[in-house]
Amino acid sequence: MRSGLAVMILVTVVTMAGCAPGLRSTAVTLTLVPENAFHRPGPAALTSPVRGLYGPAGDSYPQVDVYQLGERDLAWTPVYLDRPLAVEPLAYVSVRGAPGLVADGLTRLAVSDWERLPLDRATIEQAGAAAIRENAAAIQRVNLGPLAHPGYAESTAAWRPEAAALSSPQPTLVAVDADRQQVVCRWQGPTLPAVKPLVTRWLVLYPVYDVPAGRVVRIVVTIEGQVEE
């Protein structure tokens, strides 16, 4: 399933930044994005240095996944490498090199040197989980109907996630925008009511963590679905 141009709606929610007295409240923005419109392929790019996440396939498919975060989308561009790196998949790395052709005919970055960049994954994922829990009431109030594909809007508008479903989120880090210094986590939430056979749809939340600020600054709220074939 695919969507047209994403339309973003901003809802500002004021939550307490903890339970201890004296802590000031912080504004968290919910960015509403239409179904299957947030994560998209980005433009082809082969520059040096490349900063991104080492490909999830690791040594069997060496690449660095470069991300560019917009206000309403997350563009992904894979940069293929001519050799694997001695690091685990999804490590945050910077790679230098020059483009060149290899045996498979693809243009790959001929790695000259690389380094692992610091990224406290556990802290960022914990902050994302806390942000979802603290904003659960606001997320429940969102009318998802306008975000749904045609044919799904009516049933989607009538649905709200239960509080229990948002009480124990486990977001995982999926993207780093090196230029904006922001990290994106993803949590696939509860399943929406079935409308058509073989189609499964979920509420999906993307907490966006700002590294200089040291906190989640917004949560992307969207729907993602797939068709079984």
Provide structural commentary:
- The chain has 229 residues and is mainly beta.
- It has two domains: 9-38 and 121-227, no CATH class; 39-116.
- The protein is built from three helices and twelve strands, in the order ββββββββαααββββ.
- A six-stranded mixed β-sheet has the order 1-2-12-11-10-9. A six-stranded mixed β-sheet has the order 3-6-5-4-7-8, with no helix packed on it.
- The model is unreliable at 1-25 (pLDDT under 50).
List keywords for this structure.
single chain; 229 residues; mainly beta; 2 domains; six-stranded mixed sheet; 3 helices; 11% helix; globular; disordered N terminus
Widest sheet: strand order?
Answer: 1-2-12-11-10-9
Which runs of at least 5 residues are low in confidence (pLDDT < 50)? 1-25
Write the element-wise H/E pattern from the N-terminal end onward.
Answer: EEEEEEEEHHHEEEE
Structural class call reads: mainly beta
